[in-house]
């Protein structure tokens, strides 16, 4: 589904990403971990054509993301609050995203209904602008908006950060469900090793822009990651 080939990114003379090659199959829940500055957001930004590669390319469903726009209809993401529109209410934003994805209000309402628990009565019907929501509630809006219109690829940068424990647990079951039962390819990054091993069937560790581990998640993975990061 997602093929990364000889991908590098340099800023000035400094190389911040050197991924070599990486294959992510359809329906995989894929986790990216690494210390601050390891290159996680850089990789996601390249995947979304927010920045250009220095060398190499990424193909998503056989579409080269930096030369064609055809990956956009099946790809959704929430990287940070710059994806939101501060002067809209959550409802206005969801309907706006729905329109972009060919979904009418009734379709969007159906999606929102499934996320009532996740919203915990803090998002809908509050007549608050997105800019006035707490960081965690902004994140909830961004994540749910990314799931409107049944995307085939969902990219979430640090989705657990700023969320309360209840919401983190709910988010884990949402991510597992869309990957396992709907065949969605989910890419997430996180600093939370417990959550990422819970939710991802594969975990790649980045260090200074390079892949240093590529693990199929099993009962030993959390220990292995903890040992890796303790050094
Ligand atoms: N526009 C830029 N100009 C120069 N360097 C940049 C730019 N954007 C990112 N970098 C550098 O690229 C490296 C990788 O950053 P990136 O944000 O991808 O790391 P990350 O793994 O997401 O980190 P974190 O866990 O802190 O979010 C860092 O050294 C960062 O300073």
TrEMBL record:
Q: What keywords appear on the UniProt entry?
A: ATP-binding, Nucleotide-binding, Transport
Top-level taxon in the UniProt lineage: Bacteria
A GO term, aspect molecular function: ATP hydrolysis activity
> Which residue numbers delimit the ABC transporter domain?
2-230
Annotated Gene3D superfamilies: P-loop containing nucleotide triphosphate hydrolases
Write down the SMART domains for this protein, in alphabetical order.
AAA (SM00382)
Q: Record's InterPro entries?
A: AAA+_ATPase, ABC_transporter-like_ATP-bd, ABC_transporter-like_CS, ABC_Transporter_VariousFunc, P-loop_NTPase
> What is the recorded name of this protein?
ATP-binding protein
